[in-house]
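Review form for a predicted model. The reviewer records the input and the model, then writes brief findings.
Reviewer: anonymous (R2)
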Amino acid sequence: MNLKIFIQKSDEILNSMSIEELRKCLHSIARKTPESKRALFVQLLEDCRDQDDREDSKEKFKYKRLISDEKVKEKLSDIKRIFTKIENGELYLSAQGYEDYSNGYWSSEWIWEYEDNEGIGRIIEDAVLFAHDCMNDCRYEEAVTIFKLVMDTPIFVEDEYGGDSFELSLEEMVDEKLVGVNLKVLALDVLYSNYQLQTAAQRASVLYSYFTYPYFKEIHIEDIFSIGREELSDTDEFLQWWIDFLVQQSGEVSARLLKEGLLYYKGTEGLLEMARKCYKEHPSVYLAALSEHEKTHDYERMKEIGKEALDRVESDLKIRGEIALKTAQASHCVNDSEFMRKCWYEAFYSNSTIPNYLRLFVDEAVIREYKDLAKKRIEKLHISDCHNNHYISETGKNNITELEYKYLCFFSGNFDKVRNWCMEQKSPSGWSGHFISNGIDLMLLYLYADNNLRKAGKKIAARLSNRLGFNESKNLVFMKENSVFETEVSVQKGEEIFWKIFCLWKVNYAITADDMKSHVKWLESVIDKRIDGIVGGKYRSKYHDVALLAAALGEVQESLGMKMAKRIVIDRYLERYSRHSAFRGALKEYMD
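Model under review:
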């Protein structure tokens, strides 16, 4: 229950209660109030008792101030004076730096050890505490002044070894445990104080400007409605200004705040209403509307909204793929299999990941309708170096990396291309960062003729599952029996799904017996050279990797009818490298 609904419901009940019932209610709340909150509760009672006496007076402030004007003036002057010294570098931290090799020589990290001989941490803590007191004393101008000093004054650090000096921000001071400040509480205090200080026309832009600070990233604007001694006024008017302002902004922060503001102010229908207006700038609002209807299991409505969104949102946006998946699941729940399959294709069209592609091979109907269309889509995809597969921006385009393109070519049946890309790597010991390590794994699984993997094959499938995104995706493959939305897939489950869908996919790309023999012979040659390069070069860290390739090759040959093939392969390398005990040990792990 959000704050707005909670307050409305509470007011409804309170308005129906008698004075005696209200007294009993407050007495019960007082009895259950923890010790740390009792002073605030007493202050609340006093504020409410004195409020009626001042409603008709000309007193400027609604609540009685607890700190004298003289004390505030003196304290504020002291804070400004000492922060000027910090800003000018008269007060500073000292530090000693060294390189930390605890995680290994090649992953060293530079570590600083700080000394705060000037007590800057205590100065900041004291200033934040006083700013909070000013806020609760309805002295918002003074509070905002102090908060700005705390947030924007850089802290100079002097290297004791004579290196260049540098600066720390407030967030870095907190991270380094040089100052004990709760940044979330500070952020809410800052927003609340500015709300009270600014005019109605300025509030939205001023409050939004603070979200450039990293520690405002997870702050929800509605949280400020429940802090401070004074209830914020004109919140409905503000929320309308806030929403109108956010619609004109771009980026993930504005999108999040917009969705939260709409949901708080206007509910689910408000999300849908805004989605129809700003889907070009903020298509994620459609996704938020779908998620809200999902909570109430209104799948028919979800399907309607999803269909509308798919028709409107630009087809080349990745987030449209997320919308398509939610719509597919809703369609499944209302037994509309035809539209569900169409949504699966639209998910791949807009967000061309391997899981989204392989979803199109779960049954004959979807294969028949969308296999060829998906292949044509692959040919038109844009390849980009700048790509983050772990995060989908609401306006992010459906670009793929060169590696992802090669994966898609493999799953489109272009096995000769895969071999050629693998053969571009001439050095048998320099596979890191090259496609060949992925291509060999893919070909090993493809040529394996049994549906039940053995020890080496399971390891190959596990690492491919991870590389292809099957261990981190939500709504991963959505097999027919899975109607749960937003499924978090465990590593083990992701591997099981990957291998199951891999087997379903493979039957659509059968090759001749001669081609099969040719591919196996090529794999045998490549893996043999790889093992010679690694073991001959004594790259001990790679021994387990190449032992895995040898064992997997043997399992492939056995699945194709060659008896005892894995034992033969392993024995061959045991004999060849009789003096390499570490490599021999890695090989023996795969002996059945």
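Findings: The chain is about 60% helix and 5% strand.
Further findings: The radius of gyration is 32 Å.
Recommendation: see findings above.
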